Amino acid sequence: RELYVRVFREMAETVAAIQPADGLWRSNLLESRTSIPGETSGTALFCYALTWGMRTGVLERDHYRPVVERAWAGLYGLVNDDGRLGWVQKPGASPHATKERNWAVYGTGAFLLAGSELLMLGGK
């Protein structure tokens, strides 16, 4: 367990350090320009993992709470009027920019996982 916790903490710190200001990670994690749209399925999974880490005491809340809040705000802002979360990377696709019309059930599932962890953490 210690190995996995150490690796999780290292990955969490790296992911947090490269989060763009709008809260949405890009398909290419090394791309931080906000002129390129964020990708929602990866962002939702990062949001879920970081929130789980805080809730279980593996990650420090004070450090990761702002990262999670930016990610959730970015995700929530991309749910369209029909309730669909767009900007999802296509399966097996290389890291290219996504589009609003790109959606998939795994993107929605990741969004719901992140939201459920936030609720359990006591988020809004």
Shape: globular
* Structural class by sheet pairing and helices: mainly alpha
Number of strands: 0
Strand content: under 5%
Mean pLDDT: 92
Uncertain runs are none
Cα end-to-end separation: 31 Å
Number of H- or I-type helical stretches: 4
Query: What is the helix/strand order?
Result: HHHH
Note down, in words, how this protein is organized:
The chain is an all-alpha fold and 124 residues long. The protein is 52% helix and 0% strand. The chain is built from four helices and no strands. It has helices at residues 2-17, 40-55, 61-76, 105-121. Helix 2 runs antiparallel to helix 3 (61-76) and helix 2 packs parallel to helix 4 (105-121). The longest helix has 17 residues, at 105-121. The protein is globular, with a radius of gyration of 14 Å. The model has no long low-confidence stretch (mean pLDDT 92).
Topology:
Blueprint: H1 2-17, H2 40-55, H3 61-76, H4 105-121
Helix pairs in contact: 2-3, 2-4
In short:
The chain has helices spanning 2-17, 40-55, 61-76, 105-121. The chain is an all-alpha fold and 124 residues long. The protein has four helices and no strands.
Protein traits:
124 residues, mainly alpha, 4 helices, globular
